Amino acid sequence: MQPLRGAACTIADVDPGASDYALLDFGQGRRLDRFGAVTVDRPAPGAADIPLLDPTAWSGAAARFGRAAGADDLAGWDSTDGLPVRWDVVIHGLRMELRPTPAGQVGLFPEHAEPAAWAEGRARAIGTRLARPLEVLNLFAYTGLATLAMARAGAHVTHVDASRPAVAWARRNASAAGLGDAPVRWIVEDARAFVSREARRGRRYDAVVLDPPSYGHAPHRGAAWRLEADLGDLLSGCAVLTGPAPAFVVLTAHTTGLEAAELRARVAVAFGGTLASRAEVVALGMHRPDGRQLPAGYAIRWAS
């Protein structure tokens, strides 16, 4: 399915290549994901009013993440013996380590496979055209799916995340994917602080990939992050590092607070309306077996 230019489109099909992932079902505010041999039942607020496709499939989940009975504010994993402490999957041809986290995640957002594949393709094609590796900045880079995809394409990637455990996790993924010696700079730092510091140093990048959360804060710094309030300044800082015509930009956002048009407007202010007017706006999400779609936010992207 081809994305529309300049407007939100239907949810992009994720074709991650070699993949151990499947969305088995969603509805009644839950989602049932299979990661390799492990199936997990987790919250999906956007699916509250949707009926289940296959109610019988849910009994096969190794674990359910949610609130414990009688708990007002505590959530956790209600696990059978089938939930491993860690396990590996392959997505987009890259081996990734998964672990259940206290926040209900497993270390991989499957809807990121399509943006990662797009960025990998642009890094390879533009690098070939320029006859040199691209310098790419990846902010809020988490466990490294996009970083590893672009490194596999020959890019030099600066991987930035405020979480030290997440960066260590990404480095393990690099080793598992055979990319332990790839030209990646691993940085544990708040994205805003890092972008400001790189600008002061006169550092320049060809392209930027970023996946900012709706809310967050840098560990040990207490610097709160709110997407609606802070995204514009961060994008403007990125534009200083790339100049007004970057090789490519990928912004993914899962928040319900900013619609696609507003995200695109923030990009236009930061990088210039003429360039950003050519941006693709892609609705992210996954499909369940009957073809219905679980939305997961938007990607704003363009390439020179």
What does this protein look like?
With 304 residues, the chain is α/β, with parallel strands linked by helices. The chain folds into 2 domains: 21-98, Immunoglobulin-like (Sandwich), CATH 2.60.40.1180; 110-303, Rossmann fold (3-Layer(aba) Sandwich). The chain contains 7 helices and 16 strands. The chain has helices at 113-130, 145-152, 164-176, 191-201, 227-242, 260-271, 273-276; strands spanning 21-27, 30-35, 38-43, 63-67, 75-79, 87-91, 94-98, 135-139, 156-161, 184-188, 207-210, 215-217, 224-226, 248-253, 280-287, 293-303. A 7-stranded mixed β-sheet has the order 10-9-8-11-14-16-15, sandwiched between helices. A 5-stranded mixed β-sheet has the order 1-2-3-4-5, with no helix packed on it. A two-stranded antiparallel sheet has the order 6-7. Strand 6 and strand 7 (94-98) form a beta hairpin. Helix 1 packs parallel to helix 2 (145-152), helix 4 runs parallel beside helix 5 and helix 5 packs parallel to helix 6. It is globular. The two termini are 22 Å apart. The model is unreliable at 1-16 (pLDDT under 50).
